[in-house]
């Protein structure tokens, strides 16, 4: 009934503090964890109308900045965890995909395949990664099915509309000329009107649009950029399991197109056109009641087409190109086999660049493929002692890319032979001889391979009010993109203790080496310790639990490093 008071109650289905989150080489109960970590779940990522995991993080986690230098599709944003960790080397966090450090671009990981993303922010949380944890760690876990689960098929399709926001407003040609004259007079107040660059007659002819080729009034924003474009994404995934097998398989297709206002003038249409195909295949098999074999495979196919100049550079060009110096193009003449682009002499040996010509006369296509495979064998040694487990991981990643570009030298013209008394009559002077044939580069190819092995043994057990845990791990890694590979090797360990979920302690260490440093200086020790006190679990706090249901204080100290050193120039 309209106007009748309504009572609405919101109840939680599960305690957020009882959640188990993925941390460095293991899991931890959120309420008992003393490091600084934040988790984003799948539902928060899937609702973000973006086609990559990096953009989906924007605004989701405190202390994490997602910065985009430009809005061009296919450009990965910059991620910073608690600011800048270095002044002369990489500042990017370490990405970990399904437990294995991942050297690829997380922007290429499909958000629909992600179960959760955990960000480790402080040294206590990242110390196990030692020489690779200085800039924080981002752990990505992909989805999986479940045992004894009916097959479930999910299909989704999205179409989003992309528009320019907060684009600067530019004055038109007449107002630009008036402001230019005004600025000139402010610097040279003794100048007469006849000495100013733009006469009142020219300003009026431009305002009246008498001849846009002699007195142009170009809105370069409209010439270069469109107002709106669309992005499409489709996903199909299948998950389920039986008594011994569980699985998750997905195919994701996304299409991004840019806001460049291009047309097919040559043998290419060079508006930004990006096609992404991502395959995810996660399978777990119980070989015995205590032995499990897992395989996670991620395959990515990328095709990126567009002009051989990025949108940010085009934007910079329209900032420095006046609306009144030349038009984008001049009308075609009978028999023309080329486009007459506008320009003019900036000096005796330098021509003004035409942003429209720069955009139209170059083309680039890049194709990239990534295959990342992880095989893991887990063994539960509960038959020896309860809580004892071990696992071995092997990871292989291969990335390859090929690209080429095509271009044609534009014909540039300027208007001559006109006057303010006869603005309709003009001639065109060719000031740059163009090419009649397209030039094409060779195909540039590049690739890299990563092989990683790691094994760990862990122990977690509850003894009354005492909960103890420990982990010891060995790992080695080889990354090769040139003749000489980059190699890492090390051991890491962790010990955790909590008493009655009130008093918490954790000790971590990483002893890691890298061949990028000189002999006898290649290994470093990275310890960390954290303490916590859950005050809300104390008996004296019970009267306050209706107002504050969880109160924990913690402190941590640790060392982490980075072997991603700046190369000598």
Question: How are the SSEs ordered, and which strands pair?
Answer:
Blueprint: E1 20-23, E2 26-29, E3 37-41, H1 42-46, H2 53-56, E4 64-67, E5 78-81, E6 94-97, E7 100-102, E8 114-120, H3 123-126, E9 137-142, E10 149-163, H4 173-187, H5 200-208, H6 220-224, E11 228-241, E12 245-257, E13 273-288, E14 291-306, H7 311-320, E15 340-342, E16 345-347, E17 350-351, H8 355-360, E18 362-380, E19 388-407, E20 411-416, E21 427-432, E22 439-440, E23 444-463, E24 466-480, E25 486-499, E26 503-514, E27 523-534, E28 552-558
Parallel strand pairs: 6-9, 15-20
Antiparallel strand pairs: 1-2, 3-8, 4-5, 6-7, 8-9, 10-11, 11-12, 12-13, 13-14, 14-18, 16-17, 18-19, 19-22, 19-23, 20-21, 23-24, 24-25, 25-26, 26-27, 27-28
Helix pairs in contact: 4-5
Can you tell me about this structure?
The protein is mostly beta strands. 10% of the residues lie in helices and 45% in strands. It has eight helices and 28 strands. Strands 10, 11, 12, 13, 14, 18, 19, 22, 23, 24, 25, 26, 27 and 28 form a 14-stranded antiparallel sheet that branches. Strand 23 and strand 24 form a beta hairpin. Helix 4 (173-187) packs antiparallel against helix 5. The termini are far apart. Mean pLDDT is 88; it is low at 11-15.
């Amino acid at each position: 009934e309209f106007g009748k008071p309504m009572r609405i109650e919101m109840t939680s289905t599960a305690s957020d503090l009882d959640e188990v989150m993925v941390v460095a080489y293991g899991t931890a109960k959120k309420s008992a964890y003393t490091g600084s970590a934040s988790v984003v779940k799948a539902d928060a990522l899937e609702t973000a109308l973006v086609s990559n995991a990096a953009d989906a993080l924007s605004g989701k986690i405190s202390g994490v900045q997602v910065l985009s230098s430009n809005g061009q599709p296919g450009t990965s944003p910059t991620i910073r965890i608690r600011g800048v960790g270095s002044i002369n080397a990489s500042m990017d966090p370490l990405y970990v995909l399904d437990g294995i450090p991942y050297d690829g671009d997380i922007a290429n990981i499909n958000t629909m395949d992600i179960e959760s993303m955990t960000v480790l922010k402080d040294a206590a949380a990242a110390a196990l990664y030692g020489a690779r944890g200085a800039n924080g760690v981002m752990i990505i876990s992909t989805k999986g099915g479940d045992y004894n689960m009916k097959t479930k098929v999910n299909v989704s399709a999205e179409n989003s509309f992309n528009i320019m926001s907060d684009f600067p407003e530019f004055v038109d040609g007449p107002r630009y000329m008036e402001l230019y004259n005004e600025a000139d007079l402010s610097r040279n107040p003794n100048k007469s009107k006849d000495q100013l660059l733009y006469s009142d007659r020219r300003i009026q002819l431009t305002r009246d649009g008498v001849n846009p080729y002699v007195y142009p009034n170009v809105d370069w924003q409209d010439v270069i950029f469109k107002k709106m474009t669309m992005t499409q994404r489709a996903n199909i995934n299948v998950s389920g399991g039986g008594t011994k097998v569980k699985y998750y398989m997905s195919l994701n297709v996304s299409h991004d197109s840019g806001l460049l206002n291009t047309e097919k003038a040559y043998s290419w249409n060079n508006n930004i056109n990006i096609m992404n195909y991502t395959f995810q295949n996660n399978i777990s098999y119980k070989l015995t009641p205590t032995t499990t074999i897992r395989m996670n495979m991620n395959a990515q196919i990328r095709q990126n087409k567009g002009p051989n100049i990025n949108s940010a550079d085009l934007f910079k060009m329209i900032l420095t190109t006046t609306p009144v110096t030349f038009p984008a193009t001049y009308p075609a003449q009978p028999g023309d086999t080329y486009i007459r682009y506008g320009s003019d002499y900036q000096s005796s040996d330098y021509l003004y660049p035409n942003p429209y010509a720069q955009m139209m006369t170059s083309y680039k296509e890049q194709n990239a493929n990534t295959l990342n495979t992880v095989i893991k064998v887990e063994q539960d040694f509960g038959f020896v002692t309860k809580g004892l487990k071990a696992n071995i991981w092997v990871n292989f990643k291969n990335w390859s890319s090929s690209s080429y570009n095509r271009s044609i030298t534009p014909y540039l013209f300027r208007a001559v032979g006109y006057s303010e008394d006869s603005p309709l009559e003009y001639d065109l002077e060719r000031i740059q001889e163009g090419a009649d044939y397209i030039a094409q580069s060779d195909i540039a190819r590049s690739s890299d391979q990563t092989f990683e092995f790691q094994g760990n043994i862990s122990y977690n057990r509850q003894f009354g009010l005492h909960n103890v845990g420990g982990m010891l791990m060995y790992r080695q890694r080889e990354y090769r993109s040139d003749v000489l590979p980059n190699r890492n090797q090390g051991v890491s360990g962790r010990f955790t203790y909590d008493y009655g979920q009130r008093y918490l302690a954790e000790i971590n260490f990483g002893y890691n080496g890298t061949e990028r440093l000189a002999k006898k200086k290649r290994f470093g020790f990275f310890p960390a310790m954290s303490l916590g006190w859950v005050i809300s679990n104390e008996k004296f706090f019970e009267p306050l639990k209706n107002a504050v249901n969880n109160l924990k204080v913690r402190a941590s100290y640790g060392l982490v490093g980075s072997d991603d050193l700046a190369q000598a120039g």
